[in-house]
Amino acid sequence: MAYLEITLQVAPDDRAATAGVYEKYNQPFLDTVPGAASKELLARDEDVRVLHSFRNAADAEAYLESDLFTRDVVGELSPLLEANPEVRLYNTV
């Protein structure tokens, strides 16, 4: 199992729009991304995080290169971001 955590710096006024992007692409992520197991939106006062789980790290890395991520998700989130996202990949041991 592998986890992909993406931390987004988003202004409080843009949080609803960020959640909308999450909702729009959540089911396509689960239905079409090989190895995708789950996806959760985590909001804090400091930031918004999206936690994805995959069958393995190779599937997570492939998702980061996919059109769904690079064109669709990043394309819609980019105008809402105050800084570059922080991407972390974790493997279970």
Helix content: 40-55%
**Tally of helical segments:** 3
Content of β-strand: 25-35%
Q: How many domains?
A: 1
| Span of the ends, CA to CA | 8 Å
Strand order of the largest sheet: 2-3-1-4
Using the coordinates shown, work out and report the CATH topology. Alpha-Beta Plaits
Question: Got a strand count?
Answer: 4
CATH class: Alpha Beta
Return Rg in Å: 13 Å
Largest sheet: 4 strands, antiparallel
Which shape, going by the Cα principal axes? Answer: globular
**H/E topology pattern:** EHEEHHE
The residue ranges in which pLDDT falls below 50 over 5 or more consecutive positions are: none
Properties at a glance:
3 helices; single chain; 4-stranded antiparallel β-sheet; 93 residues; alpha+beta; 4 strands; Alpha-Beta Plaits
Account of the 3D structure:
This protein is an alpha+beta fold and 93 residues long. It has a single domain (2-91), classed as Alpha-Beta Plaits, CATH 3.30.70. It has three helices and four strands; from the N terminus they run E-H-E-E-H-H-E. It has helices at residues 15-32, 57-65, 67-77; strands spanning 2-8, 36-43, 48-54, 86-91. It has a four-stranded antiparallel sheet. The relative contact order is 0.31.
